[in-house]
Amino acid sequence: MGKRNLETLVGLFVLLGIGALVFLALQAANLGNLGSGATYTVQARFDNIGGLKPRAAVRAAGVTVGRVTSIVLDGKTYQGLVTMDIQKDYAFPKDTAAKILTAGLLGDQYVGLEPGGDDANLADGDTVAQTQSAVVLENLIGQFLTGRADEAGAAAATTPAPTTTEAKP
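Given the sequence above, the corresponding structure tokens read:
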């Protein structure tokens, strides 16, 4: 009888471990909040979405208030059109700004909302007018390097050429 109890405890421990791994996998994949609450849809246009993905978090003041549902390229403006579902519990003013931010130094990207001061709120189907695109690390490095090259080129252009005096025999 003692051996059977031990096997049952080991089995429960294994099931608990599998449950913990599933929970961690859902959290790592950003699928842990599968809320079924009422939402409203808003859109935002960005020049560069960086590494933003569908199901990414939409946050305001660090609190997750929604999810990115889809990302498509607008064929007319050639901008990324990001569609977001925001929980109805959170009403944002019409002049809210949307930014694509990064969680940590090399973390996942998410949409950050900064509320404005308008009296009217965003409604279902509205578009966020003020947006700031993602900061792409490769672009920053390229700008830094070309800035250094431009500085070096400008310094070389302003430095007078060395004059040599030759002695005449």
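The radius of gyration is 27 Å. Try to locate this feature in the token string yourself.
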